[in-house]
């Protein structure tokens, strides 16, 4: 029966080509608009590390007080003093800190111009905590951190650039005039959004190329290449040289801890409160402890990582799709009711209501499928054009893949069939006697 | 007008179709109003002047390799001298940031020293531009009062170690904010320090580096300081002679690499004309405006098409009744105005609901995003536009209805 109804549906659609085209175009545009914006939204709103997003926490301490903090919220990173204190205290199973750096690889052999290298100065725990995969070698050790060793981890892409992709473990690299020994090469590592570096606003930036020990970078006085916020408080470190800046109240170092059980979380929170209370007693803070421990999902939400463009355009395009569906309901109603006579005949010949439902829903499904196919085409075109709407670093994230295409088709068919319920219900209500009489 | 009663009676027999058209009009009105409002908000930024003379201006970002801190002073001076001597270059300067660039330095500015115990918000938020006496001519800023920096006033400083008790040039907007009486020249301005800077010049306009909403309340508050910042990163602004832009876009980086190749000028965004800077800064604003425009256009088209479709169906359904009316003496004009009035009634119902929806949707957007309240003028324009659209859409089927011959009354279906 399905095949027969399908054929009937096709025939009926051909009978009113303008009306059919109108419905197909409306559904096609509606579903495509929604899918194009969805293709961006699903990436920017995704959970980048689902397996442990509830176990990784960023540590925040209010060092500015109620007058200068951000509506009661601590700054989004720690000061040099607090960040180092957190690492030294070693109260969590794993903890790390980092800041972005921008170095240069000096020219050698076949390269006549220097090469820029962006990366993080961090600690050994960084790689394990954030599940960084390795291609060659491994992360440096905790001893390397304490020895303040000149070691480096390269990204896959940078290793390709420097060593042609060969196993470079043990080789040496000159970064901004200092020699580092390669201990590991990561596989492609580019979580989107880059949840741990939201402070720097680099949620969707290019992946990092090098990682060196924090202590080493500190010894070499490598400045942060990222954000540095000193707040509005007077005398917060501007104008007293590097030492004054480090000792001052400027926030620029994100700190993360891994806490595997609720008990550990509670213990760490207590430790943090205690730390802030101690600072208050020492006279550094003139306010009661105001600390936060935010896990990945909490942090992503708090930082509004989804660009407003993405959310607004998704809302608007879904609204657009709804209007297209309302339009389709109206047109289907017109189409079905015009065939009252035909329905009357079928009903008079013994077709139960269920058969009428089946016939018309299948017909609607055909319209939906046609709209879906158009939608897939428009989506493919549109995703190519999201560069118009979003910054390149975000537009890049939008991709047409098989799941997206399948979803487009599915949404189109399901939405149309749902929209067709009302017209179909009306069609099934047609009284056979009425129709036969007027003929 | 006397037809309204029978029309209402007829509509009652077509509840579903009536409600669907009204609903579609309502939703379309809600979305179109908000979309147009977003377009206006976004395009308002687009045309905001920076205060710079943007033609013939190049922005170069430079990072020294193997040199940092004090060592970058002489390197930068060599660069600037080479740039200024280059044929085709009118002037060049170094600056820590520039309008529309995105990153920069901002702090509170005040007319009195900040007081640790008596905490209050600073009078104005401002951005700091660290540059030299070539800035005004390179950027093409318009000096409306006072004077430019003198070469001997310009110094190299460590970005983490300087005092701001120096002559400064401020934008008109900041001058007015600090000294509303209009006499800012020669007056002090405190930049988070106990020693004040002195205002020696006022430029007509100078935008901050940021375009985001968060900087909207100090978008034109800028201070130029006669400091060049040490360090391995800096921006050069280069004013080319008229007609030399295309050549200089290639010649400037080549010249810099010839002067010293131990540097990185990123391939992406390393050398940009100011037109490119502007385009990239407002990319998402413009894209959003385009998207909303397309959505509006398609939406209106689909709504119009939906009205045409449903009304055609009604006309087809009522051919017999129309024939009867015609046979009983109704003119073609009567039939035409029947359908137009019917559509107007449905449309009126739709726009009333739609206006409420539009405002509701705007309130939701206001509470979730940094958006302003929808101006009622948009709703009014939207209401009129949709009513006209409805009348336009219904015209063709209504004309068709008016041509139904009276003899139709005698035929069966």
Compact summary:
Chain A is an alpha+beta fold. Helix content of chain A is 51%, strand content 15%.
Write the layout of secondary structure elements.
The complex is a heterodimer of chains A (439) and B (413).
Chain A: H1 2-15, H2 17-44, E1 56-61, H3 65-68, E2 78-79, H4 80-89, E3 94-97, E4 99-105, E5 115-122, H5 125-129, E6 134-137, H6 142-147, E7 151-154, H7 156-163, E8 172-175, E9 178-186, E10 210-213, H8 214-219, H9 241-247, E11 251-253, E12 255-258, H10 262-281, E13 291-295, H11 296-302, H12 308-338, H13 340-348, H14 353-384, H15 392-395, H16 402-428, H17 432-438
Parallel strand pairs in A: 5-10, 7-9
Antiparallel strand pairs in A: 1-12, 1-13, 2-11, 3-12, 4-5, 6-9, 7-10, 8-9
Helix pairs in contact in A: 1-14, 2-12, 2-14, 2-16, 12-16, 13-17, 14-16
Chain B: H1 4-12, H2 15-46, E1 57-64, H3 72-85, E2 89-95, E3 105-110, E4 124-130, H4 135-139, E5 143-146, E6 155-157, E7 167-171, H5 172-178, E8 188-191, E9 197-203, E10 222-225, E11 227-229, E12 233-240, H6 245-259, E13 263-264, E14 271-273, H7 274-281, H8 283-317, H9 319-327, H10 332-368, H11 376-402
Parallel strand pairs in B: 4-10, 6-11, 7-9
Antiparallel strand pairs in B: 1-12, 1-13, 1-14, 2-12, 3-4, 3-8, 5-9, 7-10, 8-9
Helix pairs in contact in B: 2-8, 2-10, 2-11, 3-6, 8-11, 10-11
